[in-house]
Design brief:
By secondary structure, the protein is an alpha+beta fold. The protein is built from 2 helices and 3 strands, in the order ββαβα. The protein has a 3-stranded antiparallel β-sheet with strand order 2-1-3. β1 and β2 form a beta hairpin. It comes from Sphingomonas desiccabilis.
Amino acid sequence: MLEMRPDCERCGADLPADQGGAFICSFECTFCAECADALDEHCPNCGGELLDRPARVGRALKENPASTERRHRA
């Protein structure tokens, strides 16, 4: 199950689990659309491809809440 990280690792933008606009690599490194574009859709941590993260909504989100641990480092 995806961890659904709450923020962009590069700029710190909020990325709610129930909305689109987040991009992840196979290790779940998470970036906003603007940063993914700036990174040419490649993860700076592992070099993997950044792809659209699916949203988690409704009962699925209620029963499996998103992570609250923020990964952005200023």
